[in-house]
Design brief:
By secondary structure, the chain is an alpha/beta fold. About 60% of the residues lie in helices and about 15% in strands. A 5-stranded mixed beta sheet has the order 2-3-1-6-7, sandwiched between helices. Strands 8, 9, 10, 11 and 12 form a 5-stranded mixed beta sheet that branches. The protein has a two-stranded antiparallel sheet with strand order 4-5.
């Protein structure tokens, strides 16, 4: 039986005993009246009533004697009993005193447990660093100190990119060890006044305090360089790659939400441009919002028929004829007008939609080739492939399917790739190119 159950049972028994005592006194008094000799009818009528009233008062008094401690125990359990009234109850040697001491022990244990749970909620279980739940409080306090001291602070958003690959290759235990090493490197690279938090699976936030802008940027650069050094995972050296963005207070914003958002925007730009550190600059928000808009709208560009393939001819001057064209994709956005390929193709690559775009372009080219062949026109068509197209074998299957569907020989197609696309994953790229050549 739990403590609370025993407490409720004991209190119920005490109240029942007090009430029963009053009832018992009433019965005894009634029986006693029957033995008293009286000839006065008025006295005979009033005497039972007086005795009953006296018994009720005695019962009520006894009940109060028991209910008052019960009320005090309830207040003690709720933490609402004043110390002057609590101390006498603790010193009692009866059941009430035992219950009071037990209640206080229970309250103390609950307070300690709640405090421990509150601390655990604020800490990352893997690294032991504060988590994102305290970021706002820490940042607001740091901004208040910076205002009082007329100094600057920096919000550095760090994204360690290869942690997922470590998890996949070596297991989650190795990934946790890598996270701890990253946390240690960050902690060793900051000062005592700075704050390091883990805010995501592979993301950290560093609040750099008390310095000039150039000092904070120097610390951020040193941290980025430190994170790019090799770590040992199961006896093997693994090079981490971190992309970090920093926003400065008050230069880039005076509110905690704006600083966090702008540091995150700078981090995304660093990752997209394969840079270790990117400092927020004015106008980056608008550029980022435009990119998000285009990324969302691109999913509907094909169903809305906003994309088109144009063919740029390549002339052989010696023969004075066109024997080859290059397929160029254009996006006529419904609201924003013509979007340049050098803007939307990188967005498609970063959002993972470039494969869909490549497959659509290839099908448009095959359909056009089929029409040209029906007119006895033999024209080679060059199509540019993305680096992401060379990281999976799906492109080979797509080409097989399309050439058979439209009856176009593979030799009528020229696939162009850049050197950077091959260098990204050379073994995979070479194997896919070989498979395409065999087709």
């Amino acid at each position: 039986m739990s403590f609370s159950t025993r407490l409720a049972a004991t209190l119920s028994v005490l109240i029942l005993l007090a009430a029963s005592t009053g009832v018992l006194l009433l019965h005894l008094a009634t029986d006693a009246i029957g033995w008293l000799p009286t000839r006065d009818p008025v006295v005979g009528a009033l005497l039972p009533l007086s005795v009953a009233l006296l018994a009720a008062l005695v019962g009520i008094s006894l009940t109060r004697l028991q209910v008052r401690p019960v009320q005090d125990l309830t207040a003690l359990l709720a933490g609402e009993l004043a110390e002057k009234r609590a101390e006498p109850i603790r010193r009692r040697v009866d059941e009430i005193g035992t219950l009071a001491r037990g209640i206080e022990a229970l309250r103390h244990a609950l307070e300690v447990r709640n405090e421990r749970m509150d601390q655990q909620r604020k800490l990352d279980p893997v690294t032991g660093l504060p988590n994102r739940t305290i970021v706002r409080d820490r940042l607001e306090m740091a901004m208040a100190r910076a205002q009082r001291q007329q100094s600057c602070l920096g919000v550095l958003h760090v994204n360690v990119i290869k942690l997922g690959a470590i998890n996949d290759r070596y297991g989650h235990h190795a990934g946790d060890m890598a996270l701890k090493l990253v946390a240690e490197r960050l902690m060793r690279g900051v000062r005592g006044s700075d704050t390091v938090c883990r805010i995501g699976s592979s993301e950290f936030l560093v609040i750099l305090e008390d310095g000039r802008d150039e000092d904070l940027l120097r610390v951020a650069a040193a941290l980025s360089e430190r994170l790019g050094q090799d770590i040992s995972v199961r006896g093997k050296q693994v090079r981490l790659r971190a992309a970090s963005g920093i926003a400065l207070f008050p230069l880039h914003g005076r509110g905690w939400e704006m600083l966090l958002r702008r540091a995150d925007v700078a981090r995304q730009h660093a990752r997209e441009r394969d840079e270790a550190l990117f400092v927020y600059t004015e106008g980056l928000d608008e550029e980022h919002l435009r990119e998000l808009t285009l990324q969302d709208d691109f999913q509907e560009a094909i169903p809305r028929r906003e994309l088109a393939v144009l063919y740029q001819p390549k002339m052989v001057l010696a023969q004075r004829r066109v024997n080859q064209v290059e397929a160029l994709v254009r996006w006529q956005h419904g609201k924003l007008g013509l979007i340049r390929p050098d803007e939307f193709i990188p967005i498609a690559e970063r959002s993972g939609q470039v494969r869909l775009l490549t497959h659509w372009v290839l099908e448009q080219v095959m359909r056009q080739q089929q029409e040209w062949q029906s007119q006895n026109m033999e024209i080679l068509v060059a199509v540019n492939l993305s680096a992401l197209d060379l990281r999976e074998n799906q492109i080979v299957h797509v080409l097989k399917t399309l050439t058979r569907m439209y009856g176009v020989p593979p030799s009528a197609l020229i696939l162009e790739v850049t050197e950077s696309a091959i260098l990204g994953d050379m073994s995979m790229a070479v194997s896919i190119i070989d498979a395409l050549q065999r087709e």
